[in-house]
Amino acid sequence: MHAKAPSPNLIARFVDIVGEANALTRAEDQVAYLREWRDRYVGRTPVVLRPVSTAEVARILSLAHAEDVGIVPQGGNTGLVGGQIPSSDGRQIVLSLSRLKAIRDVDAVGGTMIVESGVTLTEAQSAAKAAGRLFPLSLASEGSAQIGGVLSSNAGGTAVLAYGNARSLALGLEAVLADGRIWNGLRRLKKDNTGYDLRDLLIGSEGTLGIITAACLKLFPMPAERETAIVAFQTPEAIMKLFRRAEVEAGQSLTAFEFWADRAQEFALKYMANMRDPFTDAYPWYALIEISHGGKGNRVANTIESLLAAAHGQGLILDATIARSLRQAEDFWRLRESFSEAQKGAGGSIKHDISVPVTRIPEFLKQAADVVERIAPGARPVPFGHFGDGNLHYNVTQPLGADRNAYLALWEPMTEAIFALVTEFGGSISAEHGIGQMKREALRRHKSEVELDMMRAIKTALDPKGILNPGKVL
Fold first, then answer.
1. What would you report as the CA-atom Rg of the chain, rounded to the nearest whole angstrom?
2. CA distance linking residue 391 with residue 355, whole number of Å
């Protein structure tokens, strides 16, 4: 981590760049920028800078580079691995991109949109919809998560199965490098084979190689039809079989295939307001399926109804309910997106954002449950996630009646045991949340030395003084 603390005179020079109204120095004004929403990470800073333009970001980084001051870029502060939180020593400056709010251009015919990094996902979706197009990236935190942050962390979400993750949805970037130079890579091209892909290098780098200030995003036709269903199963193996069948029957129209264990739904119904159980009976496992189509007619309804009818007739599923209105479909999705927050009501939760090959999900779930029982007898696994792309949120809630702090003290041994199993299954210790500071040491243990050397070489080349998000990722 960068060790030099900025002097009062240097802080005043930073303040001059953005103006006093957009330089937060009082503790009460900084709270929202220094605390991760789960309270796992809390930092300190001498000042939160809130620039309004790429030019101001460039001036801030130019000064920081000259003076060897660490800069922590931050979007909507919805990250889950502490990548957006400064260190606790109070030496690093927080640079909030939330005022870079311009939607510079929407090209409905060309299927692109250029937006600045402080635009939220909801705002980007609304701008695309107003032009009759779809921006498909969707997260539970989309009302707060900002474009710069989701690209910096290469966020995934619920539509990865059909549209890919954040990396797949960006054609070009504008970014400020560590020394303050501005790279204008806002190209609208789907093909550009002119050397190293600098866009892909910055996406997913968590602000350690450059600060994204704008992006050219892909837009898609709005689906004319969309059908959503929640399906009940006895086992994960049955979920796998229906997923494979849905892939064949729906093809590219299969836009989502989410899944969860009964405990996730139990917590949501118990601890979240205004939640409805889709069924009259409880079942061991569930999946949310969405099939969309760009054309007109009743092809989607026919596909999902015939898919579920055939599966039920063969005993593959236990029950199913198809949304009969937009409101009901929204309720289904609201249930699915409530699982992370609902776990707070049940006590301490040790969380893992991991991925394994799709075909090995059922086997992984069985072995992971054994690992949990060995580390913390009585702890309650709450697995859910994006079945179609192998991304599991393997969260584990404390045993009933356990002391919360004593349970959370098991975070490291449980996480390391789960990560070891993930590695054994040929998976990844971070599917969509990134590395940040939470998984930095785990990355060192689970990446090869060759990979780490390549990453360090890139970091050294683009940020030789180490001022960009010090102590994160590497």
1. 23
2. 4
Phi, psi at 465, each rounded to 5°: -90, -5
Classify the phi-psi angles of 278: left when phi > 0, otherwise alpha if psi is within -120 to 50, otherwise beta.
alpha
CA 10/CA 32 separation, integer angstroms: 24
- Measured between its terminal Cα atoms, the distance across the chain in Å is 10
Nearest to 152 by CA among 94, 60, 72: 72
Angle at 461 between CA 185 and CA 472, to 5 degrees: 90
**Contact at 8 Å (CB) between 183 and 212?**
no
The rounded average pLDDT for each run of 10 residues, N- to C-terminus, in the chain (474 residues) is: 80 98 96 87 96 98 96 94 93 97 96 98 97 93 94 91 94 98 94 91 97 98 92 98 94 93 97 95 97 70 88 96 95 95 94 95 98 97 95 97 96 96 96 91 92 97 96 94
pTM above 0.85, yes or no: yes
Phi, psi of 354 (to 5 degrees): -135, 170
Could you report the per-residue pLDDT of 34-48, keeping only the tens digit for each?
998 777 899 999 999
Measured CA to CA, the distance from residue 457 to residue 417 in angstroms comes to: 30
Residue burial 408-436, b: 16+ Cβ < 10 Å; e: rest? bebbeebbbbbbebbeebebbbbbbbbbb
How many residues would you count in the chain? Answer: 474
Residue 146's identity, in one-letter code, is Q
Token look-up 């579920």 returns: 308
Compute the distance between CA of residue 180 and CA of residue 228 in angstroms, rounded to an integer: 47
